[in-house]
Amino acid sequence: MAFQLPKLPYAYDALEPHIDARTMEIHHTKHHNGYTTKLNGAIEGTDLEGKSIEDILSNMDMSNAAVRNNGGGFYNHSLFWKVMSPDGGGTPSGELASAIDDAFGSFDSFKEKFSSAAGSRFGSGWAWLCVHPGGKLEICSTPNQDNPLMPNTGCGGQPILGLDVWEHAYYLNYQNRRPDYVSAFFNIINWDEVSKLYAENK
Length: 202
What we know:
The protein has about 200 residues and is mainly α. Helices cover about 45% and strands about 10% of the residues. The protein is built from 8 helices and 3 strands. Helix 1 packs antiparallel against helix 3 and helix 4 (about 95-105) packs across helix 5.
């Protein structure tokens, strides 16, 4: 079964004013759709066909640029859409809130460290919040469409929150003001989804 472009759980304009409708539409229908199509082409007729995206990425041959870039692009964006919501923002609660306090000292400290990971990534890439077995959280960032599931990325654990800092994710609205985009992201984080992912993977 070929990978399919996931539908967004909200309308393209639902995240305005934080992310504009035109950016969302282009990002989803052009960029994510392109990664999906190219991933299917890269694995067709190989032993990767029929495997889950998580299995493909975690056992990745990092020299296989087509699968690395397009598989990462498919997975990363599939997570990205889910961890945003027009009803998002605020702060997490329950187990996730406690884990954030344990790992980073406070939510404000987490926000500062996550924003730094996103803002300091040179060029294109992603910022991540990951959970390790046992519930320990880690913040890291990866270049291009790499992610923590892939071997030897300098990250680890299961991604439960990801922020796309490629220019195509924000340039129409924010131009070169990446810090403003990163700040706006906190107004639309779907903490219910992030908490669910935390509980499933700790």
